[in-house]
Fold these 2 entries.
Entry 1:
Amino acid sequence: MPVDGVPPGRMPRHVAVIMDGNGRWAKRRALPRAFGHRKGVAALKGAVRFCSDHGIPVLTVYAFSTENWQRPSTEVKFLMELMKKTFTSEIDELHQEGVRIRFIGERNAFSSDITEVWNNAESLTKDNDNVLLNIAFNYGGRRELVLASRALAAKAAAGVIEPGDIDEDSLSAELLTTPCEDPDLLIRTAGQCRVSNFLLWQLAYTEIHVTDVLWPDFSDEDFKAAIVDFSQRDRKFGRVLEM
Ligand code: IPE
Ligand code: IPE
Ligand code: MG
């Protein structure tokens, strides 16, 4: 189950991925960007299977950011359609593989044909416990923190809590990834060393692995390399390790 050479205790339990590089993958082949996004879906299927095969219980992927609305409207529209098609055509297979699906992101930006696909995928797979796949779609870490703050402020205004009671646990409880533990490992493909508004709170002590591999090319071997890299890190959480 664990990756070869990695002790079970050194396997990540929650992996987050910034699936970047679809456009560059297409550009290198002189293809429209849409081809890269399509190939990216196949890479995502591979990553989910990898988690299932290697006992990684939670995978959180960045599929569409709150900033991605600024792309050309044809690309935005294509991504919406691709997401809808993917979670319609692949849902039975994902369900059979015991994958639980959750969409994390603000939903009120979408029409009912999209939210229906999400609701169906979530309700069909809600009891699965092999891999939890969080799909961050219309997700932004800053937005998530704004919404969490609003929820806490509303509770305080209603007298349910005192402002002074707000602490790290109560704020965490309002986040979209709840009840998942924070990611152990963040993988970003396509070489950029930035978090691009992904999981800003949750990444506080996450190990970061950046690879030049473009997301559509991301293979089991690349996933393994990320895990081997992770397994060799000393996670100190601010402490001094015993010498
Ligand atoms: C990631 O690939 C997919 C989304 C952001 C939806 P990009 O589309 O950002 O690919 P590059 O960065 O242009 O290569
Ligand atoms: C981050 O990639 C968002 C997703 C992978 C969905 P971007 O391509 O949007 O990020 P930047 O623009 O390079 O920071
Ligand atoms: Mg990009």
Note: The chain has a mean pLDDT of 97.
Entry 2:
Amino acid sequence: MFSRLKIFSGKANEDLARTVARFAGIPLGDIDLFKFSNNESFVKINENVRGSDTFIIQPTCHPVNDNLMELLIIIDALKRASAKRINCVIPYYGYARTDKKDQPRVPITAKLVADLITVAGADRVITVDLHAEQIQGFFNIPVDHLFTTPLFARYFKSNLDNENLVVVSPDSGGANRARTLATRLKCGFAIGDKRRTGNNDKAEILNIVGDVKGKTAILFDDIIDTGGSLVKISYALKDFGAERIFAACVHGVLSGSAIEKIENSPIETLFITDSVFLNEEKRNCSKITIISIAELLAIAIKKIHIDESISILFR
Ligand code: R5P
């Protein structure tokens, strides 16, 4: 007999959580989430979770610190209410990009956040396209790392003419991810020589390695944040003779003036998932197409609940 499956949502991306619950065929768990006037977060779980297999859906996207803190508080509430297992579904793992000590006296926030989640009482993390695979090792609890490459590949196979495609990674860090998509689409692969010249959107593209001339390029990256990297490489691709330019990014953080940059760029369409909450402006941007990960998450949740392998999701 399985323990009861329950899915709760924090405030970070309630639209996604509702869709996941619908695909999983169960209603979202009853939880109150609010802030006191002093800005402290509070949660109250309004149903019995004793002995339940609980899943919290909470990407740690904007407002990152509030969403992270709320996740920790929900974990604590579930633990104190005797949930049997606490699974954190964090489709977008914020703070991931500070994952190594590459300058003196800097933190490794990806590890710090992993520690916070673990110490709060999580038993498992389910996440999607981590910025770097090694982040799994920052946790001493199981991490189920899902990938969206099969979703993007399926979409492009049925919606783009595959004849003349080339998948382009903006930098060497994303090369494996982009190569996997290129292999699935049976097309060429190129890579940008990106150099960061400062924080946020300070990046320059020195070169493009690979044949893009006359081709339809699909830029593929894990995150679009300020849009600096993607937009700069889209101009470089034009200079190197690419005919059409599309972009696909798993996590549409889209901070600052990212939307404006995309709208004014040579990128025809930006494909993103709904791992991060997307406001009206982002959802209504004519250049953005959203590919939902809700069904992928629902299937993963159901399989994890019954201790079934999730490898089929990578095919
Ligand atoms: C960097 O290594 C990441 O993969 C992304 O390319 C980067 O974080 C995107 O940030 P932005 O949109 O601000 O250039």
Note: The pocket of ribose-5-phosphate is lined by residues 97, 170-171, 173-174, 200-201, 203, 221-230 (CB under 6 Å).
